Amino acid sequence: GYFDGQEVRNLYHPDQQAPAPLPDSDVVEEYISPQFGYRVFYPSQWESASVNTDGRAVLFNAITGDYILVRAVEKEPNESFNEWFTRKIEDQSRTELTEFENKYNVTGYRRDDDLVAYFPGEEDVYILIYNPGVQDQIPYREIMKMMVQSFRLEDSLQVLPRQNVVPQSNRQTTQTTTTQATTTEETATTTDNQNTTTQTVTTTEEQTTTTPTTTVTSS
What we know:
alpha+beta; Protein Transport Mog1p, Chain A; 7-stranded antiparallel beta sheet; globular
């Protein structure tokens, strides 16, 4: 597909000689949260929409039915990510997450299957969750990686740092490995004092929207 490959994952334009920045192309758009100020790139052919009035859940939808959710979940003042994770996330071990720094030097934690990522902020933790339209296929894995790499908070870098050139020899290998069918089932459960659902991220205010499989329950 057009978005497959290591170039997009590293925020390069796939059809131009590296290091042509992906943000300078017309293949992505930038979403800026009016409530929380975070920014993230998403495919220009996808649709974006907030699913509740407070802007805490935003969906990025592909025509195939796949979508990526960005969710803002409150944390306590001075609460560390590990403390928040222990308090809010059920049915998922902290050992399944790897700490990393994305292309904008924002520190996050990604799950081993690259389908869930967490970015701690001052007042909220931002969760990115990939939900496949067909459960045994992950056609937009590279899109998820691109969105994770482009996510930044209001006070973080807004200019993409200069990157190393992506070796062209890696292109074919990446494209073939990213098209493998994968079975995924979300088991993460989050606790939100105001929202309750089972097996989905949909809150009681969001019952008209089917959202990814992180569960929000009351404390």
